[in-house]
Amino acid sequence: MTSPSSGEAMAKSAPGGLAWLLDQRVLLSIAVLAVLPWLLPSKALAVNVLIYGVVVMGYNLLFGYTGLLSFGQAAFFGAGAYFTGIAIGRYGVPWFAAVTIAVLLSTCLAAVIGVVSTRTRGIYFSMVTLALAQLVYYVALQAASFTGGENGLRGFTVDRISLFGLSVNFLDPVNKYYVLMAFAALAMWFQSRILNSPFGAVIEAIRENEQRARACGYNVERCKLIVFMLSGAISSLGGCMLALHLSIVPLDILHYQTSGMIVMMVLLGGARSFFGPFVGAATFLILEDVISLWTPHWQIFVGAIFVLFVLFLPKGIWGTLLEGLPIRKARQ
User: Which residues of 126-138 are buried (b: 16+ CB within 10 A; e: fewer)?
Assistant: First the structure.
């Protein structure tokens, strides 16, 4: 018998009004993101929070909910961006088709990497994902005719978004934000459906006790591969959003430092929390934006702040806030 996911358990065990709010987590998250551009110093910063929030949300599905620590998420973030840029710039594919193709190809890449990496466990899994992601980085570096090599991918621009007879000026910062927010909303809805499904309960069972999940008859290796692919698909959508936003794809997007930044963001916001990735992305990007005005060595200060968060807020900002709510998890 499948046990409910932690989100379902929270909602069922919370007081009436709070339970209703927890059931509407996607709508509440969209409502918060809708006012984000007016709360942050710039619209560009708000767009970056959206993009990295989606990428980190995909990683949170793998790390937070399944318990698989990967150091190679940048491979899917970058793949989504590169495939989108190549499809638009080199082959003249419409933006919506380019995004669809990019997510599908990135999911295939995640399947290839996942088949190899999910055969390992623990630190070996982390090292294999890091090695394979760096392999993707060097492939992009060498395939300069397609990717632009060290200079990154350039030569494509999306200035208008046309869909269902509507045409939107994509160069306007406000329009750009809300168009990209639609992608983020779709990703949140998709992940919420995964977490509320029986499969969501299975991956959480794998995180809590892999041997017991296997003893219950679940094909743990297959479940890990599926969640690895789903995680890669969601993170690649963030890469598609970045390509549409910048009209360039820098090579650094595939570097292991980007993977490290994604890990930091999920820990800052709170692993295993639905909205935590956006909180973590906003926290990291705001710290970078503010501290870099004072010193070019902002990484030192952000690293020190990150250590303090890990020591004193191990559940992250959003996870700690949720812990303070009058919620008792039911064990059914």
Answer: bebbbebbbebbe
Cα distances from 201 to residues 269, 272, 318, in angstroms, run 22, 13, 21
**The two structure tokens encoding residue 207:** 């995180």
The encoded tokens of residue 4 equal 């409910």
Domains of the chain and any CATH numbers: 42-312 (1.10.3470)
Predicted confidence (pLDDT) per residue in 230-247, tens digit: 999 999 999 999 999 999
> What pTM was computed for the model?
0.90
For residue 281, give Cα distances in angstroms to 11, 100, 240.
25, 24, 17
Burial class of residue 307, CB neighbours in 10 A (0-12, 13-18, 19+): exposed
- For the stretch 183-222, pLDDT in tens is 999 999 999 999 999 999 999 999 999 999 999 999 999 9
Report which of 118, 125, 130 is spatially closest to residue 226, judged by C-alpha positions: 118
Q: Report the sign of the C-alpha dihedral through residues 161, 167, 173, 176, in that order.
A: negative
**Distance between CA atoms of 105 and 232, rounded to whole angstroms?**
10
> Which amino acid appears at position 60 of this protein?
N
Q: What is the rounded CA–CA span in Å between residue 66 and residue 53?
A: 18
How buried is 122 (Cβ within 10 angstroms: 0-12 exposed, 13-18 middle, 19+ buried)?
A: exposed
